[in-house]
């Protein structure tokens, strides 16, 4: 009897409280524009498919480590913004010598590491050397190998001398994390200067970051961010639907988008990624040595239809290796555009009027098998027979990338500014145009970014004309978020995900 | 009995030693290079060689093997190639998810299947007996991931009673949260497991129901319940227990599907991750612990059978032969 009464009392109290709270929430909401007030101490739950392997980006941490730590926990001298610009970050200013070989950086004042130690030029030297070290697995190592000498005349000045001119040097520095020279166990702990400190990493499950009270810049707009890791896109979407996460960094399941688009509680953001899907020819192996054959194949494939079938209304067609966020972007989709008649004509001119057959090495994970099947049916219409050879990433690496033992292959290339690979005749696809190689070299040694951009535009146009590869499409970068959130990055260049500007209401 | 236990223990050690050799050898026979997982596309041969050296995969196989066994003997499962973290603590952290998941599912399945299987046999001529048989038949055919998705759709996405997946990052610090996270996965496994268990319990019961000793007991004036309790259950239990052992072991190993549907950081997902990255220490560590668990389960099942059925004691000890 008494328990029943208690239960009834409890229920009434809860109901009354709920009404009161809702009323408060309501009044709070009306006072702010856009509904709901920004909670400065909110916890933002982020859902991702990319768990780091470890926390060190020079030790094979993978793309997950960039997503969670870059800009959030670690900072560089420069920062690559979400729209592809390079901004000063820990560098207060810099000077370039007249010959373009010496860069003198002045460090920002009052920067502290999470351990409390002040940032000095020694730390910058240490961090650069860490990327350049023999055992470094950094993807940027080769770009930074022009560094000849690093001097630290005083605690706030770093002087870097290059062996040859490199106009991309400052841009490349945006990938170099500045780490406390005395830090240890960087695979499992951190000591950066960013707006967050590492709180806890539960392997296989989640990684949380706390707002750093001693941050030199504007404090993070939320108290804590928790990256929740999923292996499966459906599980990740379910987490978003049940409010277990507030935002998904990169939606990989186009079929799931409809349920978010039709629901007023979510916003589906269609950003520009830097990931290109390539049908890469071996330009050194017959018949793809012939530019007409490459052009014919490019013209015979309806990229638009492929993109539509894989991604619905998302993603972009591109006519070259250059995504819109690269400074030398141009719309080249009309070069070698879909035109079956033209394809047939080009094939006849190249002496393949009856077509030919080739083997397409296809990585065994999405979307490559789908794309391969599509390409096969498209090329069949112009008499070309495609044999699909499904291979594992390991095999691809050895057979295609290392041994160049292939005719054509499918692959996704994720990085920004990677057009320059066409200037390297020894790269796996074997595109060899001395003029292009020369332009790429000159671009890197250009006196400034304007000259660099002009030269790389020429490279862009030439490789497109030569159909060096067939650039099938640019992946969309889809961030799906609860409408309670604002301030999150939408382009996610190179898997960056700056969390410090994310504001959450309620 | 002491002699039997000693024999079983020796058998366990020998099996474990054999398993570790096979495990190590099989992994090295698989194609692929762990260094590839550690280096990014574009890595130079020097970088790859450095990666191989750092994880020790450039050393001769016998040396790698003795190194691993040496570590095992001192209770160390080694260090992950990829994360540089020790494997042991991660395995035990993940056992905190997988063991409760498997045991709870197992207990629930037994609680459902034993009475249901008995009813399905004893009342096989009634409509509900037939229904039980039919449903269990159907249950065997249902893929576990599909069942998981249906349950998520009903109880997480629509009713919002339970989370759709994940496990609290703080583990069991908040037991209520942890339990909530495990309810749907436990039910998923238990449903599939009980479907096949019902079949076994049913056929074991049918055997007993038609047996001579039960008929004799009834003829001597024992009531059906009493006869079943004194003679029937024991006889039915012996085959069922060996099946239970196999079911428990296979669930422990098969949890990977359920763990991936529910995004649980368990042993299964650790194994899957390790395999995709050629992370030998992780794969070896997980499989070694699982092998140990399976052997132990077999041992316990055996022991329980002997306790229930005295006839087995002489037979299994080997001494009587």
Distance between the termini of chain A: 39 Å
Q: Uncertain regions of chain B: pLDDT < 50 for 5+ in a row? A: 316-321
Q: What Rg of chain A do the Cα atoms give?
A: 26 Å
Q: Return residue spans of chain A where pLDDT drops below 50 for at least 5 consecutive residues.
A: 1-34
Number of helices of chain B: 13
Distance between the termini of chain B: 15 Å
Overall, the morphology of chain A is globular
The neighbouring-strand order within the major sheet of chain A is 8-9-10-1-11-16-12-15-13-14
Tertiary shape of chain B: globular
Please tally the β strands of chain A and state the result: 18
Q: Percent of residues of chain A in beta strands? A: 15-25%
Percentage of residues in helical conformation of chain B: over 70%
Order of helices and strands of chain B: HHHHHHHHHHHHH
Number-wise, the strands of chain B total 0
Helix percentage range of chain A? 25-40%
Largest interface: chains, residues each: A-B, 40 and 48 residues
Question: What's the total helix number of chain A?
Answer: 13
Oligomer designation: heterodimer
Notes on the structure:
The complex is a heterodimer of chains A (506) and B (321). With 506 residues, chain A is α+β, with helices and mostly antiparallel strands. In chain A, 29% of the residues lie in helices and 22% in strands. Chain A has helices spanning 2-31, 63-69, 121-132, 169-173, 233-241, 257-261, 291-300, 303-311, 340-349, 368-380, 393-402, 434-444, 449-465, and strands at 43-48, 78-80, 86-88, 91-96, 102-107, 147-154, 157-162, 196-202, 206-211, 224-229, 247-248, 266-281, 357-363, 385-391, 408-413, 470-482, 485-486, 503-504. In chain A, the strands form 4 sheets. Chain A has a 10-stranded mixed sheet, sandwiched between helices. Chain A is globular, with a radius of gyration of 26 Å. The model of chain A is unreliable at 1-34 (pLDDT under 50). Chain B has 321 residues and is mostly helical. Chain B is built from 13 helices and no strands. In chain B, helix 5 (87-122) packs antiparallel against helix 6 and helix 9 (212-219) packs antiparallel against helix 10.
């Amino acid at each position: 009897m008494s328990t029943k009464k208690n239960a009834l009392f409890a229920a009434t109290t809860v109901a009354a409280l709920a009404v009161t709270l809702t009323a408060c929430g309501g009044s709070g909401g009306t006072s702010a524009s856009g509904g709901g007030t920004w909670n400065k101490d909110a916890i933002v739950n982020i859902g991702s498919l990319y768990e780091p392997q470890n926390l060190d980006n020079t030790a094979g941490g993978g793309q997950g480590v960039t997503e969670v730590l870059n800009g959030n926990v670690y900072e560089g001298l420069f920062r690559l913004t979400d729209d592809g610009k390079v901004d000063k970050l820990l560098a207060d200013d810099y000077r370039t010598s007249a010959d373009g070989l010496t860069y003198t950086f002045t460090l920002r004042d009052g920067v502290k590491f999470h351990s409390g130690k002040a940032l000095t030029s020694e730390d910058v030297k240490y961090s650069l050397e860490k990327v350049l070290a023999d055992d470094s697995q950094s993807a940027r190592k080769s770009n930074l190998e022009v560094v000849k000498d690093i001097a630290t005349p005083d605690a706030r000045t770093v002087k870097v001398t290059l062996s040859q001119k490199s106009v991309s040097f400052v841009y490349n520095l945006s990938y170099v994390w500045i780490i406390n020279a005395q830090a240890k166990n960087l695979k499992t702990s951190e000591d950066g200067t960013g707006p967050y400190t590492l709180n806890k990493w539960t392997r296989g499950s989640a990684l949380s970051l706390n707002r750093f009270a001693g941050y030199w810049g504007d404090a993070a707009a939320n108290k804590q961010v928790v990256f929740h890791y999923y292996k499966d896109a459906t599980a990740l979407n379910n987490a978003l639907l049940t409010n277990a996460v507030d935002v998904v960094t990169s939606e990989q399941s186009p079929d799931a988008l409809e349920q978010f688009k039709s629901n007023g509680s979510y916003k589906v953001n269609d950003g520009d990624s830097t990931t290109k899907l390539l049908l890469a020819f071996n330009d050194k192996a017959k018949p793809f040595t012939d530019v007409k054959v490459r052009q014919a194949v490019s013209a015979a494939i309806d990229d638009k239809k492929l993109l539509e079938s894989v991604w619905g209304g998302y993603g972009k067609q591109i006519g070259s290796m250059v995504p819109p966020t690269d400074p030398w972007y141009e719309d080249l989709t009309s070069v070698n555009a879909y035109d079956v008649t033209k394809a047939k004509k080009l094939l006849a001119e190249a002496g393949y009027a009856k077509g030919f057959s080739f083997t397409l090495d296809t990585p065994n994970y999405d979307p490559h098998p789908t794309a391969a099947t599509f390409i096969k049916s498209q090329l069949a219409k112009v008499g070309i027979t495609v044999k699909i050879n499904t291979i594992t990433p390991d095999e691809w690496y050895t057979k295609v990338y290392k041994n160049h033992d292939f005719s054509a292959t499918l692959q996704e290339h994720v990085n920004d500014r990677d057009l320059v690979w066409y200037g390297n005749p020894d790269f796996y696809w074997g595109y060899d145009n001395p003029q292009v190689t020369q332009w790429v070299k000159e671009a890197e040694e250009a006196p400034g970014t304007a000259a660099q951009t002009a030269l790389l535009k020429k490279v862009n146009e030439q490789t497109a004309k030569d159909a060096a590869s067939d650039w099938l499409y640019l992946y969309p970068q889809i961030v799906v978020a609860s409408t309670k959130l604002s301030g999150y990055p939408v382009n996610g260049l190179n898997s960056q995900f700056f969390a410090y500007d994310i504001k959450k209401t309620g | 009995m002491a002699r039997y236990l000693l024999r079983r223990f020796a058998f366990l050690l020998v099996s474990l030693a054999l398993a570790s050799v096979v495990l190590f050898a099989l992994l090295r026979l698989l194609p692929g290079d762990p260094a590839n997982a550690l280096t990014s596309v574009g890595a130079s041969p020097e970088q790859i060689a450095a990666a191989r050296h750092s994880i020790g995969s450039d050393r001769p196989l016998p040396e790698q093997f003795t190194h691993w066994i040496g570590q095992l003997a001192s209770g160390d499962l080694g260090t992950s190639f990829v994360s540089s973290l020790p494997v042991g603590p991660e395995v035990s952290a993940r056992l905190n998810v997988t063991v409760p998941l498997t045991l709870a599912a197992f207990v629930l399945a037994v609680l459902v299947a034993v009475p249901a299987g008995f009813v399905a046999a004893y009342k096989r001529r009634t409509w509900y007996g037939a229904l039980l048989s039919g449903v269990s038949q159907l249950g065997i055919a249902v893929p576990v991931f599909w069942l998981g998705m249906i349950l998520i759709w009903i109880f997480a996405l629509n009713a919002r009673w339970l989370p759709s997946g994940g496990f609290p990052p703080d583990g069991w610090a908040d037991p209520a949260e942890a339990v909530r996270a495990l309810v749907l996965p436990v039910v998923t496994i238990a449903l599939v497991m009980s479907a096949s268990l019902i079949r076994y319990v049913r056929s074991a019961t049918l055997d007993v129901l038609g047996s001579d000793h039960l008929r004799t007991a009834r003829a001597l004036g024992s009531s059906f319940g009493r006869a079943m309790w004194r003679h029937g259950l024991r006889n039915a239990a012996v085959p069922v227990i060996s099946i239970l052992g196999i079911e428990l072991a296979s669930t422990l190993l098969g949890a990977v599907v359920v763990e991936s549907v529910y995004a649980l950081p368990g042993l299964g997902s650790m194994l899957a991750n390790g395999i995709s990255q050629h992370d030998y220490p992780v794969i070896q560590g997980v499989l070694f612990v699982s092998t140990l668990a399976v052997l132990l389960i077999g041992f316990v099942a055996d022991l329980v059978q002997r306790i229930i059925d005295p006839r087995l004691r002489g037979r299994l000890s080997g001494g009587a032969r």
